[in-house]
């Protein structure tokens, strides 16, 4: 964590989180470091912070609690029930001591659940008349990834109450002032062509050329070499289990069954791996923790090459699993203990205590992994089978963006445009966020003034432009006209300019210019 690159977006997010009481929504494409940012903040903050997540495993990964657990909500809680609920365990005092609540993986949080949180905190938080009891709320996640789950039975009723299932459609969110921070720099992939392709898939602006490039990776008869550590990404748990069981069965040798140990309050929804872990020498596995010595991270892929019994200092025997990682290094893996935390008040401080433990080898079989479980992970080589194309919003994007390169992807079947599902409500919400952020930084009048200044002085402008597909583009332009313009009968304020990257005249809508600065010297046309 000490080597974290504090780029401009990171610094802005951290400053808002640590040095203000403003509510913040931190988003960004896959691989932009959202988890790294959260971890860094947790380690360095002086605030009284609670970190929550929608699922048990997500909460475990951020050393937090589930939203339901922290507030004592029942599984199917509704906002109108909150009035009747009491603070769990008589812990009313804790909610009055919180400075900041962070909700990670917020794309999976439903609008009604966020309204429950708001109602609860208005009852038990420090300031009952303010949204969320006056507590700073920080939301972290990518709305283009996996969405909230609304069952078929709930769908019709849900639509009458909320515009969308997403957290931003909560009634509490309408009254909330939220700062928008988008992490732009991608750390997972380095090939710009692949990054652009993922961006087009993310917001469904994919062209025929993009589809052609993507489908150049179609190899229906591909059989992975066991030495190459390919991970099969599936849409269902059932399919992943079938592949893993079949591959394990085909291996010769003895099956080792390692039984995990639970102490205290550690519910099944928190289990990161099987309570009874079945492995053999030769099995492909995924490691599920960040090694304290830095030898592997959560999501590292490897192969078991040896399982042997070791004698510990107290004469107890313990198995050691030797794993060859995908980069060729060999590591010895011993049982790991995961802990579930509960928050409590000690004087004026907010502290956490362990309420449950789970001890098990930090691994799972990983010839195949569900797309859902792959979220947040990074793989070098993946096999993707779209099956019948029954993908939810964001699933194709999550699957493809797990991989570090296009060359590492194998498609069993071609991907078509209709396989890529996109919720246009998400696009609309994020576009509004971009606009309000741009207006806050530079008003429309200010932008027009700067453009006129550049025209009068014959200077170029560097602009960040929000394209119609909701992608940001940085360009250098030399403007020569600004004012009211018309396109297909609709009037707007535009700027006519020479665009250096396109080497030609272009018209840009001023309201879609997110940021601009006047360059000190004119840019010559090539």
From TrEMBL:
Organism: Acetomicrobium thermoterrenum DSM 13490
Gene3D superfamilies cross-referenced by the UniProt entry: P-loop containing nucleotide triphosphate hydrolases (3.40.50.300)
Protein name (database record): Intein N-terminal splicing region
One Pfam family it belongs to: PIF1
GO biological process, alphabetically ordered: DNA repair; telomere maintenance
Domain WYL: 449-518
Coiled coil region boundaries: none
Sequence ranges assigned to domain DNA helicase Pif1-like DEAD-box helicase in this UniProt record: 8-210
GO MF terms held by the record: DNA helicase activity
InterPro entries noted in UniProt: DNA_helicase_pif1-like_DEAD (IPR010285), P-loop_NTPase (IPR027417), PIF1_helicase (IPR051055), WYL_dom (IPR026881)
């Amino acid at each position: 964590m000490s080597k974290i690159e504090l780029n401009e977006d990171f610094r802005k997010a951290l400053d808002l989180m640590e040095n203000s009481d403003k509510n913040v929504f931190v988003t960004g494409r896959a691989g932009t470091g959202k988890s790294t940012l959260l971890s860094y903040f947790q380690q360095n903050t002086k605030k009284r912070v609670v970190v929550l997540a929608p699922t048990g495993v997500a909460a475990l990964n951020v050393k937090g609690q589930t939203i339901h657990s922290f507030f004592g909500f029942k599984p199917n809680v509704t906002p109108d029930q909150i009035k009747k609920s009491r603070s769990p365990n008589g812990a009313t005092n804790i909610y009055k001591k919180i400075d900041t609540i962070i909700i990670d993986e917020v794309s999976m949080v439903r609008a009604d659940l966020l309204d429950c949180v708001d109602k609860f905190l208005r009852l038990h938080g420090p300031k009952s008349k303010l949204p969320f009891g006056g507590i700073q709320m920080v939301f972290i996640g990518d709305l283009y990834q996996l969405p909230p789950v609304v069952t078929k039975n709930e769908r019709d009723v849900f639509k009458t109450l909320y515009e969308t299932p997403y957290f931003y459609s909560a009634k509490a969110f309408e009254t909330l002032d939220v700062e928008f921070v988008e992490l732009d720099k991608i750390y997972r992939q380095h090939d710009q062509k692949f990054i652009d392709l993922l961006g087009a898939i993310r917001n469904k602006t994919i062209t025929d050329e993009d589809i052609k490039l993507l489908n150049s990776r179609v190899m229906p008869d591909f059989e992975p070499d066991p030495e190459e550590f390919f991970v099969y990404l599936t849409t269902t748990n059932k399919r992943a289990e079938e592949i893993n069981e079949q591959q394990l069965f085909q291996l010769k040798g003895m099956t080792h069954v390692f039984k995990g140990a639970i102490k205290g309050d550690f519910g099944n929804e928190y289990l990161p791996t099987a309570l009874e872990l079945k492995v053999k020498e030769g099995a492909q596995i995924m490691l599920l923790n960040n090694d304290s010595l830095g030898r592997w991270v959560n999501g590292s892929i490897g192969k078991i090459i040896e399982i042997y019994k070791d004698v510990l200092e107290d004469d107890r025997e313990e198995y050691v699993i030797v794993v060859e990682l995908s980069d060729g290094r060999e590591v010895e893996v011993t049982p790991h203990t995961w802990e579930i935390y509960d928050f409590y008040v000690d004087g004026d401080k907010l502290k956490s205590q362990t309420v449950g433990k789970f001890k098990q080898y930090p691994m799972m079989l990983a010839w195949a992994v569900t797309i859902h479980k792959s979220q947040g992970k990074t793989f070098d080589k993946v096999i993707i089978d779209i099956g019948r194309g029954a993908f939810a919003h964001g699933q194709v994007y999550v699957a493809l963006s797990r991989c570090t390169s296009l060359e590492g992807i194998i498609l069993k079947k071609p991907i078509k445009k209709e396989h890529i599902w996109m919720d246009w409500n998400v696009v609309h919400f994020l576009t509004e966020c971009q606009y309000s952020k741009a207006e806050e930084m530079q008003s429309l009048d200010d932008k027009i003034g700067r453009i006129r200044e550049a025209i009068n002085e014959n200077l170029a402008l560097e602009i960040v432009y929000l394209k119609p597909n909701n992608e940001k583009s940085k360009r250098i332009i030399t403007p020569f006209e600004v004012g009211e313009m018309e396109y297909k009968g609709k009037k707007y304020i535009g700027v006519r300019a020479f665009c250096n990257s396109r080497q030609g005249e272009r018209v840009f809508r001023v309201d879609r210019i997110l940021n601009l600065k006047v360059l000190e010297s004119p840019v010559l046309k090539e």
